[in-house]
C-alpha cells in the first residue's frame, strides 16, 4: 500500500509541477519583467517548496526538493527579473522540461549538419556512463554490511563516493529524459570533479554545474558588480549553504543545524583566498599532482567535520541505505522474473517507522519493507 501511495504522490507532484510551470510560462509571456512578473509568479514560488513533502521516501523527497524547491525556484526568480536560463519565448514543452528538471539548454551557434547522429551518440555515451556508475554504486552498497569493522572515516569516504555517484546517476537520468524528448544540446552537469586542482576549479567548473548555473546570475554577478569578486564568492557560498540547510531539512525532517551553512561559508572564505592568491603576480601554483589530492582531501575532511553530521545524527543515512538495498534487491528480483528492471520502484517501499525514529538506528534496528515482506537490518549487518 505504501508503494502505491508513493506512486500516487509521484503522479500528483508531477502533475502539479507541470501545471504550475505551464502557468509560469504563459504568465511570464504576458507580464513584463520586474515586480509585476514576480507577483504573477508568486503562487508558483510558494507552491514549489511544499511539493516534496508529499513523499515519504527519503530519496524521492530529497530529489524532488533539489529539483523543485531549489533549482526550479531559482529559475523562476531569475525569470521574474528577465534573466536566464528560462525565457518566455521558449515553446511550452522545452519550457516545462528545462524549468522542472536540472538541465540547461545549450545554445548551438554552429549547427551540426547531422544532428540526429550526434544526439544519438551523446545520448549513448550518457547512458553508458550512467550504467557504469550504477554498477559501481551497486558494488558499494553491500560493503555497508561491514561497517562495524570499518574505521569511521572509511565509512564517510564511502558515503562521499556514494553521494557523488547517486547525484551523477539522478542528474544524468534527467538529462537523458530531456535530451531524448527535446533533441537539443544540454549543458554538462558534472565535469570530472575528482580531477579538480583547486576549490575554484571544483566548485565553479566541475561539481554540480546546474547549481552554479543558477547561483551565478542570481547571487554572484549582482554582488560582484556592487561589492567586488570576493564579496560575490562569499555571498554565493552563503546562499548555497542556506539552501543545503533547507535540503537537509527535507531529508531528515529536522530543523536546520547551521553546520552545512558553516561548511559552505568556510569553503567560500578559502575560495576567495585562493582567488586573491592567484591574482598576485609571481605567486607560485602547486603542480596538479599535488593540488588535486589536496583539494579533494580538503573537501572530504571538512565534509566529515561539518557536512555529514546533520545527516548521520538522526539516522537518516541508515534509511537511505535501506532504500538503496531495497532498490538493488527489487532490480535483481525483476530481472530474475524476466520483467524490465525498475530501479526506483523499491524506493517507494518505506522502512518501518521504528527504524526512522529509533535512536538506536545505527546499532542495528530491524525494518520491515512493506512491499516485499523482506526483513532486513537498517545498517546491513
From TrEMBL:
Residue intervals of the Wax synthase domain: 187-265
Keywords: Acyltransferase, Membrane, Transferase, Transmembrane, Transmembrane helix
Location(s), subcellular: Membrane
Alphabetical GO biological process terms: lipid metabolic process
Entry's Gene Ontology cellular component terms: membrane
Positions of transmembrane segments: 39-58, 65-86, 123-144, 156-182, 231-253, 259-277, 289-308
Membrane topology label: Multi-pass membrane protein
GO MF term set: O-acyltransferase activity
Known pathway: Secondary metabolite biosynthesis
Keyword Acyltransferase: yes
Listed InterPro entries: Wax_synthase, Wax_synthase_dom, Wax_synthase_Magnoliopsida
Cross-referenced Pfam families: MBOAT_2
Family: Belongs to the wax synthase family.
Alphabetized PANTHER family for the sequence: LONG-CHAIN-ALCOHOL O-FATTY-ACYLTRANSFERASE 3-RELATED (PTHR31595), OS04G0481900 PROTEIN (PTHR31595:SF57)
Protein name from the UniProt record: Probable long-chain-alcohol O-fatty-acyltransferase 5
Amino acid at each position: 500500500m505504501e508503494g502505491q501511495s508513493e506512486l500516487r504522490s509521484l503522479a500528483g507532484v508531477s502533475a502539479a509541477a507541470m501545471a504550475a510551470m505551464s502557468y509560469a510560462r504563459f504568465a511570464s509571456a504576458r507580464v513584463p519583467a520586474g515586480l509585476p512578473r514576480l507577483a504573477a509568479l508568486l503562487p508558483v514560488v510558494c507552491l514549489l517548496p511544499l511539493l516534496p513533502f508529499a513523499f515519504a521516501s527519503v530519496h524521492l523527497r530529497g530529489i524532488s526538493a533539489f529539483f523543485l524547491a531549489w533549482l526550479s525556484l531559482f529559475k523562476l526568480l531569475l525569470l521574474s527579473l528577465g534573466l536566464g536560463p528560462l525565457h518566455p519565448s521558449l515553446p511550452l514543452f522545452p519550457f516545462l522540461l528545462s524549468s522542472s528538471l536540472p538541465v540547461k539548454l545549450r545554445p548551438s551557434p554552429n549547427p551540426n549538419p547531422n544532428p540526429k547522429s550526434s544526439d544519438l551518440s551523446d545520448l549513448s555515451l550518457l547512458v553508458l556512463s550512467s550504467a557504469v556508475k550504477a554498477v559501481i554504486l551497486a558494488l558499494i552498497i553491500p560493503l555497508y554490511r561491514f561497517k562495524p569493522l570499518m574505521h569511521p572515516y572509511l565509512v564517510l569516504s564511502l558515503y562521499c563516493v556514494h553521494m557523488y555517484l547517486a547525484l551523477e546517476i539522478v542528474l544524468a537520468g534527467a538529462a537523458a529524459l530531456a535530451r531524448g524528448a527535446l533533441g537539443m544540446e544540454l549543458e554538462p552537469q558534472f565535469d570530472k570533479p575528482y580531477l579538480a586542482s583547486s576549490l575554484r576549479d571544483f566548485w565553479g567548473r566541475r561539481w554540480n554545474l546546474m547549481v552554479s548555473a543558477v547561483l551565478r546570475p542570481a547571487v554572484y554577478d549582482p554582488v560582484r558588480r556592487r561589492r567586488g569578486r570576493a564579496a560575490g564568492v562569499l555571498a554565493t557560498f552563503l546562499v548555497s549553504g542556506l539552501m543545503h540547510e533547507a535540503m537537509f531539512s527535507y531529508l531528515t525532517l529536522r530543523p536546520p543545524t547551521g553546520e552545512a551553512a558553516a561548511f559552505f561559508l568556510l569553503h567560500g572564505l578559502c575560495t576567495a583566498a585562493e582567488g586573491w592568491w592567484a591574482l598576485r603576480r609571481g605567486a607560485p601554483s602547486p603542480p596538479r599532482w599535488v593540488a588535486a589530492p589536496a583539494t579533494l582531501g580538503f573537501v572530504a575532511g571538512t565534509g566529515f567535520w561539518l557536512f555529514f553530521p546533520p545527516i548521520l545524527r538522526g539516522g537518516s543515512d541508515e534509511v537511505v541505505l535501506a532504500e538503496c538495498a531495497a532498490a538493488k534487491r527489487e532490480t535483481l528480483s525483476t530481472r530474475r522474473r524476466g520483467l524490465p528492471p525498475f530501479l526506483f520502484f523499491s524506493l517507494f517501499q518505506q522502512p518501518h517507522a521504528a527504524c526512522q525514529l529509533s535512536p538506536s538506528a545505527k546499532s542495528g534496528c530491524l525494518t520491515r519493507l512493506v512491499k516485499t515482506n523482506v526483513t532486513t537490518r537498517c545498517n546491513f549487518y
